[in-house]
C-alpha cells in the first residue's frame, strides 16, 4: 500500500491537459493515469474540479538576512513561495558575505537547514572581489551542485561590484570549460552612469528619473553584448529579468542559431509599467525598471511563441520603512519588490483572460526551469520517478490580492487591490502538503537543499557539450 493518491484532477503538462490521478509513495510519483488503475493508498486527496500543475521552480529569488535592509528570512520566504505554488526556489548569492566561495556555500547550507518549507537550490556569484580566483572557485562551486553563477554587467553596489568586458570574457571561457550556467544581469554601465549624471545635474528626483536612468537602450545593448560574447565563446547563459521585446528577440535569435542562451522574464514586467512607476514611485522601483505600456504589450506574444524561456519572480522585499524613504527621492529607494507569492495567480489570471495557455504556464515555470537549472530528473514534471511536487489550482476562484494574504516578512503585496481569476488551493512538496487555502500547514524542517542533478539543457532542448555531473 502506497502513501497517497491525488484523485480525479486535470493534470497539466507543458504539452496538454488530461484527466488523471497521481499515485505517490515516499515522496515520489509512482504512477499517473486513470483512477481505477491507481494502487491502494493510506490517504487520498480529492482533486475534482482542480487543475494539477507541477510545482513551480522559481529560479531567481532573494532571501536575505545578513543584509539588514533586504528582509526575507528563509522561513517567511519559503512560506510565501508555498502559498504561490512554488515548490523549489533557487536563491541568489547576496547576503554578507555573498556566495562566491566554497566556505560561504558550506555556511549558507548550514544556515538554511531546518528553516525552509519548500526545497531550495543555490546560485553562486562572481564579482570583481572574487574574480582573481574565479577559475578555482567556480570549478569547486559547480562541482558542489550550485544551479548557476550570477554575474552583473552593471552594479553601483560595493558589496558586489560588476566585471568589465574583458573579465566577463574570461569568466565565460571558464564557464564554457565547466559546461556551467551563467545568470547575467545585462545592462550598459557607462550609459547608465552618464544618464544618472545628467539627471542629477537637472535636479531630477521624481520616479520617472529612474526609468530615464536605466533605459531600454542600456538593457538592449547589454543583452546584445552578452549574447554575442557568450555565443562566440560557447558559454551557456540565462539573461535575467529581461524587460524589452528587442532583448528577448535577440536572445531567441541566438538560440535558434545554436547558442545555449535563454531568457528570463518576470511577472512584474508583464503587469507593471511606467504608469505605475509615475503613480507609486519607490513602491514599484525595480532594476531594470518597469517599462512603458507599449513595451509591456510587446512582451506578451513572446511568452507563447517560445522566445521567452522561463518566468521567475526576482523576489526582493524591502520593508515598508525602507521603501517609504524613497517616496520623495527615487534615488534613495532600493530596487526590487516582493512577488514570489503572486507570480502564479497572475499567470493563472492571464490564462483565464486568454492571453496565454496553461501549458505555457507549465513550460515557463516548471518544465523549462527544471532543464535549464539542471533539476531533472527530480523536479519539473508530473511523471513516475519525479518528486511529488504539485499544486492544485481552482481556475474559477476569484481573489483580490491584498496585504492580508501576504506571507512575506515585509507583509505587503505590490499588487494590492488587483482581482485575479485562478488560485492555487494546495501545494505539495515531495508528497507532503505545505499549503492549503493560503494557510501554511507544513514544517520548516521539510525543505531540502537540491543540488544540481543533471546536464544543462537549453529551452530549445539542445544539450550542451560535456558535463561535470551525470544524469
Average of the residue pLDDT scores = 95
Structural class: alpha/beta
Radius of gyration: 21 Å
The low-confidence parts are: 462-471
What shape does the CA trace take? globular
Content of β-strand: 15-25%
Overall helicity: 25-40%
Sheet of most strands: 9 strands, mixed
Give the count of helical stretches. Answer: 15
Measured between the Cα atoms of the first and last residue, the distance is 30 Å
- Tell me the number of strands: 17
Description:
- With 471 residues, the chain is α/β, with parallel strands linked by helices.
- Helix content is 31%, strand content 24%.
- The protein contains 15 helices and 17 strands.
- It has helices spanning 74-83, 102-112, 134-144, 165-178, 189-201, 208-213, 216-233, 245-256, 268-271, 274-280, 293-299, 301-304, 320-324, 343-352, 358-372; strands at 2-12, 17-25, 28-33, 41-46, 51-54, 56-61, 86-91, 119-126, 148-152, 181-185, 236-242, 261-266, 310-312, 390-400, 419-429, 432-436, 439-440.
- The strands form 2 sheets. Strands 1, 2, 3, 4, 5, 14, 15, 16 and 17 form a 9-stranded mixed beta sheet that branches.
- Helix 1 (74-83) links the parallel strand 6 (56-61) and strand 7 (86-91).
- It is globular, with a radius of gyration of 21 Å.
- It starts with a strand and ends in a 31-residue tail after the last strand.
SSE inventory with pairings:
Elements: E1 2-12, E2 17-25, E3 28-33, E4 41-46, E5 51-54, E6 56-61, H1 74-83, E7 86-91, H2 102-112, E8 119-126, H3 134-144, E9 148-152, H4 165-178, E10 181-185, H5 189-201, H6 208-213, H7 216-233, E11 236-242, H8 245-256, E12 261-266, H9 268-271, H10 274-280, H11 293-299, H12 301-304, E13 310-312, H13 320-324, H14 343-352, H15 358-372, E14 390-400, E15 419-429, E16 432-436, E17 439-440
Parallel strand pairs: 1-4, 1-5, 6-7, 7-8, 8-9, 9-10, 10-11, 11-12, 12-13
Antiparallel strand pairs: 1-2, 2-3, 5-14, 14-15, 15-16, 16-17
Helix pairs in contact: 3-4, 7-8
Amino acid at each position: 500500500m502506497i502513501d497517497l493518491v491525488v484523485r480525479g484532477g486535470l493534470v497539466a503538462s507543458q504539452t496538454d491537459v488530461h484527466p488523471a490521478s497521481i499515485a505517490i509513495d515516499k515522496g515520489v510519483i509512482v504512477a499517473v493515469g486513470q483512477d481505477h488503475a491507481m494502487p491502494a493508498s493510506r490517504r487520498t486527496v480529492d482533486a475534482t474540479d482542480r487543475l494539477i500543475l507541477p510545482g513551480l521552480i522559481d529560479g531567481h529569488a532573494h532571501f536575505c538576512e545578513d543584509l539588514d535592509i533586504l528582509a526575507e528570512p528563509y522561513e517567511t520566504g519559503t512560506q510565501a513561495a508555498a502559498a504561490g505554488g512554488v515548490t523549489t526556489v533557487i536563491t541568489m548569492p547576496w547576503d554578507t558575505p555573498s556566495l562566491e566561495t566554497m566556505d560561504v556555500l558550506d555556511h549558507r547550507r548550514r544556515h538554511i537547514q531546518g528553516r525552509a518549507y519548500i526545497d531550495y537550490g543555490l546560485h553562486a556569484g562572481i564579482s570583481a572581489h572574487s574574480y582573481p580566483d574565479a577559475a578555482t572557485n567556480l570549478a569547486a562551486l559547480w562541482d558542489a551542485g550550485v544551479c548557476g553563477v550570477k554575474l552583473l554587467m552593471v552594479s553601483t553596489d560595493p558589496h558586489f561590484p560588476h566585471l568589465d568586458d574583458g573579465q566577463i570574457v574570461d569568466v565565460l571561457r571558464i564557464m564554457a570549460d565547466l559546461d556551467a550556467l551563467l545568470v547575467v544581469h545585462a545592462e550598459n554601465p557607462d550609459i547608465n552612469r552618464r544618464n544618472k549624471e545628467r539627471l542629477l545635474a537637472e535636479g531630477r528626483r521624481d520616479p520617472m528619473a529612474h526609468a530615464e536612468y536605466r533605459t531600454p537602450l542600456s538593457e538592449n545593448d547589454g543583452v546584445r553584448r552578452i549574447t554575442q560574447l557568450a555565443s562566440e565563446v560557447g558559454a551557456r547563459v540565462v539573461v535575467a529579468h529581461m524587460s524589452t521585446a528587442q532583448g528577448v528577440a535577440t536572445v531567441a535569435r541566438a538560440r535558434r542559431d545554436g547558442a545555449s542562451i535563454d531568457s528570463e522574464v518576470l511577472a512584474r514586467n508583464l503587469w507593471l509599467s511606467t504608469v505605475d512607476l509615475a503613480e507609486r514611485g519607490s513602491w514599484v522601483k525595480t532594476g531594470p525598471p518597469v517599462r512603458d505600456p507599449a513595451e509591456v504589450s510587446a512582451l506578451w506574444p513572446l511568452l507563447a511563441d517560445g522566445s521567452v524561456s522561463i518566468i521567475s519572480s526576482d523576489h526582493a522585499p524591502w520593508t515598508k520603512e525602507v521603501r517609504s524613504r524613497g517616496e520623495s527621492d527615487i534615488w534613495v529607494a532600493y530596487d526590487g519588490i516582493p512577488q514570489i507569492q503572486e507570480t502564479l495567480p497572475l499567470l493563472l489570471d492571464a490564462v483565464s483572460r486568454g492571453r496565454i495557455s496553461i501549458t505555457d504556464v507549465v513550460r515557463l515555470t516548471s518544465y523549462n526551469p527544471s532543464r535549464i537549472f539542471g533539476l531533472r530528473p527530480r523536479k519539473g514534471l508530473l511523471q513516475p520517478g519525479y518528486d511529488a511536487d504539485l499544486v492544485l489550482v481552482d481556475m474559477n476562484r476569484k481573489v483580490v490580492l491584498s496585504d492580508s494574504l501576504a506571507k512575506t516578512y515585509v507583509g505587503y503585496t505590490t499588487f494590492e487591490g488587483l482581482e485575479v481569476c485562478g488560485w492555487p488551493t494546495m501545494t505539495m512538496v515531495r508528497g507532503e502538503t505545505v499549503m492549503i487555502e493560503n494557510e501554511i500547514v507544513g514544517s520548516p524542517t521539510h525543505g531540502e537543499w537540491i543540488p544540481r542533478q543533471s546536464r544543462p539543457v537549453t529551452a530549445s532542448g539542445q544539450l550542451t557539450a560535456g558535463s561535470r555531473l551525470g544524469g
